[in-house]
Specification:
The protein is an alpha/beta fold and 619 residues long. The chain has 3 domains: 4-207, Rossmann fold (3-Layer(aba) Sandwich); 216-376, TPP-binding domain (Rossmann fold, 3-Layer(aba) Sandwich), CATH 3.40.50; 384-573, Thiamin diphosphate (ThDP)-binding fold, Pyr/PP domains (Rossmann fold), CATH 3.40.50.970. The strands form 5 sheets. The chain has a 6-stranded parallel β-sheet, with helices on both faces. It has a 6-stranded parallel β-sheet with strand order 14-13-12-15-16-17. It starts with a strand and ends in an 8-residue tail after the last helix.
Length: 619
């Protein structure tokens, strides 16, 4: 190999990505699984040319909307537990601007996504160019700067040599268990410039995800606190799966007989019928987990960022409860005056277990768990009963839960479905639930399903991707159903139609407000209401589709969807007012008016303020 190789910037980026590898379960795979792209004048002639020559190594999926591309890439990374990523490329201007929401979602969820976006000319000779946003007092400022607040790593390439430093740093950021998140690289019009790159830059490299090992002194402090507990509780977050620590968590809980509550991101850390599974915790949680949390004297937080829906805006725990937080990220580990163990769960839990010795919860604590599990199981059975009450989300969830395979992946986001799935889903397989609630982003569902499906097929997994989506999210971003059809990536879509944004309407009316501008029927400017024909729309995108009238018909339709080779859409109308899961909800702090002309609003404000009395103070 010669010492240098002459390539354009775009060709060098692609060649570098081709040569990055990772070993997963004994198989050596490309670190970058390909990408999503919509071309324009900022990326088509140079980056597009390079990607064409690499189309076998780095397959490029044609996007329908840049935001959907970013969602799909995030879901892909989530499936691979942050061990692989995909890139997104968009043109300068609106194409790149459309990716900001996707970057924020990846940032909030700590997911690796590489964004390679067009930018203006570094020479500025043709300025202002098509789609350029000009800042009169700062000519260096542009659309790409908006990603600085939603990226873990940000760079703008103004000279070819810069990628020699920038690309490795971007990849190390995306692989870092503490700082993982999206990497954004702006590519001004230097993509076609040639440079003599060192050949060593393109030598194949097999990456590893580093294990962050805790300081023995932090482990000792944590052990002393846990040993003082009579009612300990584990809160297991998504970081348990990302840290490849499900087995270690299970062993730790079983050895020391400590109940385990799951966060939304940590849903599917344990199977639903595990004897120590206390259920989901928090605002969209379960009576069982929240009851255990209210009495726990030590709460062991493992791989969670302790979002307000997990903590009930910090009202779920007794004010005297002590927190121990195990997390490779210093920022997350030190939240709310916790005793921090800055380390990965995979090594920290066994080390902590050794220090705990024969420590175990008392018999009464486990008996309480058993009672709470039985109580919540009865509630869940009631919620998912297909023959009770009007059509509702939980009935569809129960049908899918009964008929799906253990390896099938469930995807949902935003609206009312995350709460209903989190509360009512019985986990059949570890790591099979993707409820995007880190950014609670409408529109993620179908695009995220596509990203998960791409990962499934790359992994040769014989399973389905099942997407639960409301009518609001479907109307917001449905174009990746067409992407799934034309690329033969089968999705099963469950479209549950409540004629509007029903869960926000529920929050609105629950706080004493009138129903306004959420349901179509309560939208004053909607004067010619017509029902959306979701079946015909899905069929026009090439999917098989049908509408069902009740849960019994839904069960038969879902069996047909499972048997089909094509993407399949099932539509069912659900009641926007009745049938919500009413149990299991912790208090949630949401701003309410302290002054109002409406007594119902003032009454609701009083109730909200009363809930604040249980709120834990901290940082």
């Amino acid at each position: 190999m010669s010492e240098f190789v002459k390539l354009t910037v775009a060709q060098a980026i692609v060649k570098y990505l081709e040569n990055q590898w990772i070993e997963i379960d004994g198989s050596r795979l490309r670190l970058c699984g390909g990408g999503f792209g919509i071309f324009g004048h900022g990326n088509v002639t140079c980056l597009g040319e390079a990607l064409f020559d690499s189309r076998d190594a780095l397959p490029l999926f044609r996007g329908q909307h840049e935001q959907g591309m970013g969602f799909a890439a995030a879901a892909y990374a989530k499936y691979w537990l942050r061990k692989r990523f995909m890139f997104c490329t968009a043109s300068a201007g609106p194409g790149t601007a459309n990716l900001v929401t996707s970057a924020a979602l990846a940032m909030a969820n700590r997911l690796p996504v590489l964004m390679l976006c067009g930018d203006n000319f570094v020479t500025r000779l043709p300025d202002p160019v098509l789609q350029q946003v000009e800042h009169f007092g700062d000519p260096s400022l542009g659309v790409t700067d908006s990603f600085k607040s939603v990226a873990r790593y940000w760079d703008r390439i103004s000279h070819p040599a810069q990628i020699i430093q920038s690309l490795p740093q971007a990849i190390q950021t995306m692989l870092d268990p503490a700082d993982c998140g999206p990497a954004f690289i702006a590519l001004p019009q230097v993509q076609g410039w040639a440079y003599e790159f060192p050949s060593q830059f393109f030598v194949e490299r097999t990456h590893v995800i580093r294990e962050v090992c805790a300081d023995p002194r932090e482990l000792a402090s944590a052990a002393r606190i846990i040993q003082s507990a009579s009612r300990p509780l584990i809160i297991a977050g998504g970081g348990v799966q990302y840290g490849d620590a499900v087995e270690e968590l299970t062993n730790f809980a079983e050895l020391h007989q400590i109940p385990v509550a799951e966060t939304i991101a940590g849903r599917a850390n344990l199977l639903w019928d595990h004897s120590l599974n206390a259920g989901p915790i928090g605002v969209t949680g379960s009576d069982s987990a929240n009851a255990m949390a209210a009495e726990a004297d030590v709460v062991i937080c493992v791989g969670t960022r302790l979002q307000d829906f997990t903590t009930g805006s910090w009202s779920c725990f007794s004010k005297g409860a002590q927190l121990v937080s195990i997390n490779p990220g210093r920022f997350d580990a030190n939240k709310h005056m916790a005793t921090a163990v800055i380390g990965g769960a995979k090594s920290s839990l066994p080390a902590l277990s050794d220090l705990l010795g024969d420590f175990a919860s008392g018999r009464q604590w486990i008996e309480k768990l058993t009672q709470e599990q039985a109580h919540w199981g009865a509630i869940r059975n009631k919620n998912t009963d297909a023959n009770a009450g009007p059509n509702r989300y939980s009935q569809a969830i129960g049908v899918v839960n009964k008929l799906c395979n253990a390896e099938d992946r469930v995807v949902a986001a935003a609206g009312g479905l995350p709460a209903e799935i989190t509360a009512n889903w019985r986990t059949l397989g570890i790591g099979t639930v993707d409820v995007e609630f880190g950014f609670s982003c409408m529109g993620y569902e179908i695009s995220g399903g596509l990203g998960a499906r791409i990962a499934q097929l790359q992994n040769r997994q014989d399973a389905d991707t099942i997407v639960f989506v409301g009518d609001g999210s479907y109307l917001l971003l449905n174009s990746d159903l067409y992407s799934a059809v034309i690329t033969d990536h089968k999705l099963i879509l469950i479209v549950l139609n409540n004629d509007g944004f029903a869960v926000i309407n529920k929050l609105q009316t629950g706080k004493g407000n009138a129903s306004y501008n959420n349901l179509f029927v309560d939208t004053p400017t909607a004067t010619a209401l017509k029902p959306v024909d979701f079946v015909s729309h899905a069929a026009s995108l090439g999917a098989d589709s049908e509408k069902v009238n009740n849960a019994e018909e839904f069960e038969l339709a879902f069996a047909r969807a499972k048997a089909s080779q094509n993407s399949y859409v099932i539509v069912m109308d659900v009641d926007p007012y009745e049938g919500w899961t009413a149990e299991g909800h912790a208090w949630w702090e949401v701003g309410t008016p302290s002054v109002s002309n409406h007594q119902s609003v003032l009454d609701a404000h009083v109730v909200t303020e009363e809930g604040r009395q249980q709120q834990r103070r901290g940082v």
